[in-house]
Amino acid sequence: MNTFYQVIFLFSSFFMLNVGFAQESQIKTAEIALSAKDCQCIDERSIAVSEQFATLESRDIGTPLLDEHGDKVIWPRALPFFAQNVLDLGFELPKTFGLAIIPNTIKQDLVLKNLKVGLNGADMVDMDFVQFGPARADNSNLQIKADVWLFPFLNLYATYGKMHGSASAPITIKGQDLLEFLGNSCDGPFAPKACEKTFSALAQPEYTGSNISVGFTLAMGWDRFFVALPVTYVLTDLNILADDIKAFQASPRIGISSDAGQWGTISTFVGLTYLNAELDVAGKLSFDTSAIPGEANITELDFFINQENADKVNYLIGFNWDVSKSWAFHAEAGFGGSRESFIASTTYRF
Fold first, then answer.
1. E strands in 186-338
2. pLDDT tier at 176, thresholds 50, 70, 90
3. Lowest-confidence segment of 152-166, 189-203, 206-220 by average pLDDT
4. What is the pLDDT of residue 212?
5. Calpha distance 132→2 (Å, rounded)
6. Distance (Å, rounded) from C-alpha 111 to C-alpha 291?
7. Partners of 261 in the β-ladder
8. Is 30 helix (H, G, I), strand (E, B) or coil?
9. Strand 253-259 to 125-126 pairing
10. How many angstroms separate the CA atoms of 221 and 215, rounded?
């Protein structure tokens, strides 16, 4: 809960900062307009292109973007398509290509099902009499990302990363079910006392692996506000699994951008994250079977279990700081339900 309030406080601070910048810009704009009206003069300022973003209040939508010499800006690259049309409307565009480093963490509850076990290397069989306790996964990733603006409203990207993580899943089995699975009988007056016990185990697989992803972001804005929709498909290869893990994520968000003078442009946003990830995990379960006649003190069962994230949707808040057209920093936190996440990035555009 403390983390939640800290995140809310951080976002509120950034939001109030943006509102402050916006109000200051509006006051400056109003003062300029009043001065121009009083003197009946013509403001011939151009929307200059520099290493810093043009201030939002200086943009005159519908008027072509001009360089520092007052000449019409000509977009020098083939991408994004229709870039020149957008410049002619007075909008600035980010540089076409980007490279980023992205550390991120995610902690979430899991839903467990379809447990299969094998004894002493035997074939896996269903074990549908098992009861699962609260299960949770904790993953950390470090990714590199490359992106390109294909259209002024569409960004395509791909990532490659390394990850490590762990999961915990409490499991309980009634003694009678376990003994019968091991080939013992709980019938008759001489049934082992273990038939009346409940056996517990904790599956704690640890894993490492790599992942690749591809995705796109749809973006648009009006005035100081913007909306964006990143959509990502991820394939993860873990050292404990034979098959790749597939995940789908979509994160719609809406935000507000404000000028920070020589510090660039700061944007804050709120949104939702939809995540659907399903994986099969393999490992070993250890049970204390010292009370079962004919069994070793510890019995190990190979297991195979299906996991998926318990909550598909949670909330997100974050900010993006464009220091210049070339450098940007970003951070966002996910919260709500049983999933917590944090993502940061440093991006270089060229």
1. 198-203, 206-222, 225-238, 245-250, 253-259, 265-288, 298-309, 313-322, 327-335
2. confident
3. 189-203
4. 97
5. 29
6. 31
7. none
8. helix
9. unpaired
10. 20
**What is the rounded distance in angstroms from the CA atom of residue 60 to the CA atom of residue 21?**
19
Q: How much is the average pLDDT of 255-271?
A: 93
Structure confidence at residue 59 (pLDDT): 53
Confidence check: pLDDT of 19 > 60? no
Euclidean distance between CA atoms 347 and 333, whole angstroms: 18
Q: What tens digit of pLDDT does each residue of 103-142 get?
A: 999 999 998 888 787 776 667 777 777 788 888 999 999 9
Phi-psi region of 51 (alpha: psi -120 to 50; beta: other; left: phi over 0): alpha
Percent of the chain predicted with pLDDT > 70: 82
Domains and CATH numbers, the chain: 2-88 (no CATH), 97-349 (2.40.128)
Q: What are phi and psi of 21, to 5 degrees?
A: -60, -40
Q: Quick one: CA dihedral 168, 174, 175, 181, positive or negative?
A: negative
Token pair in block for residue 278? 């399903």
Structure tokens at 325: 């057209």
| Mean pLDDT for the stretch of residues 159-175 | 90
Measure the N-to-C terminal CA separation of the chain; round to a whole number of Å: 41
Residue 157 and residue 127 in contact, taking contact as beta carbons nearer than 8 Å: no
- Tokens read off for 104: 């991120």
Task: Please compute the mean of the pLDDT values over residues 277-292 and round it to a whole number.
Answer: 77
The whole-angstrom separation of Cα 39 and Cα 134 is 72
**Pairing verdict, β 298-309 and 97-119:** antiparallel
pLDDT for position 128:
74
Nearest to 223 by CA among 15, 14, 22, 85: 22
pTM (2 decimals)? 0.76
Nearest to 278 by CA among 332, 316, 241: 241
Q: Classify burial at 294, counting beta carbons within 10 Å of its beta carbon; exposed 0-12, middle 13-18, buried 19 or more.
A: exposed
Contact 330, 344 (CB under 8 A): yes
* Residue 302: exposure state from Cβ atoms within 10 A (0-12, 13-18, ≥19): middle
Mean pLDDT of 263-276: 96
